[in-house]
Amino acid sequence: MNITRRALPALGLLAAGARGATAQGIFPDRVVRMIVPFPAGGATDAVARAVGREFQTSWGQPVVPENRPGANGTIAGQLIARSPADGYTLGLVAIGHAINPFMYANIPYDTDRDFTPIGLLATYPLAVLVPGASPIRDIEGLIHLAKTRATPLTYASGGNGSSQHLATALFANMAGINLVQVPYRGGAPALMDTVAGNVDLIVTLPPVPMIQSGMMRALAVTSRQRLSWLPDVPTLAEAGLPRYESVAWYGLVGPAGMPPDLLRQISEATVRAVASQTLRNALAPQGGEPASSTPEEFVAFLQAERRRYEVIMAAGSITPD
């Protein structure tokens, strides 16, 4: 897939324009809805509500989250793609937005042509975790066991195409080992079954209290730098995979065809929201970091994410549904 060529339609949407009134009048003059691709109550929902509150403060109009979970974000994506490009329907997106074309043979929209990328919102480092009772003490030991044990090690994920799935598949590919995915309906049950010892490992948001109590053991983190709250846990790059990086993230999109002045206005509001204490407070419980970007930078980020995981698709580590 030539990702750069396919992204050209999205790049064409990003021409600069004057801030202020749109061709349709002052924006917004009514309720704005924010489509969220996961159920209420999780990290994604918390980010959407925090950003929505900041938008509401900036614009003086309600911003209402609308949860449309299912199919790794494609249900929400279809709703966003089919909405008018007037700014009154925005959507929170995660890794599925970038890689769903790899995961599903038939998705009801074109990821490049049917959306306007607005900006990155946040990133979340993940950790390679094993149960506290596991004999695995470090990444070297994990790789050795995976290569020598008669039966493959298993790993839990929040479902096909989830950040847990992709991060672990990338790790296995780069380490040259075979790991068998056990998908769950969400990250919470995946984590709890790992704690119980029903699967061998999970790569997910680091549950600090579980790590501190000894219920889970963190072998490495997936970010480029160590985490301040887990300073003794190495990065996977330090543990022997120098090119490895994989983080969970959230961004904001709208339907294709948003006028340049409207895109500029919403982009600037997004940058202010990302810099707010409201969003920092929403991210802190699970170790998230604000990650601001321009629309152009978000397009480049999406391209890079596709290239990162296209490698494991080509290797057969992940197969389309």
Automatic annotation (TrEMBL):
Keyword terms of this UniProt record: Receptor, Signal
InterPro entries attached to this UniProt entry: BUG (IPR005064), Bug_dom1 (IPR042100)
A Pfam family: TctC
Domain of life: Bacteria
Signal peptide interval: 1-23
Family: Belongs to the UPF0065 (bug) family.
Protein name: Tripartite-type tricarboxylate transporter receptor subunit TctC
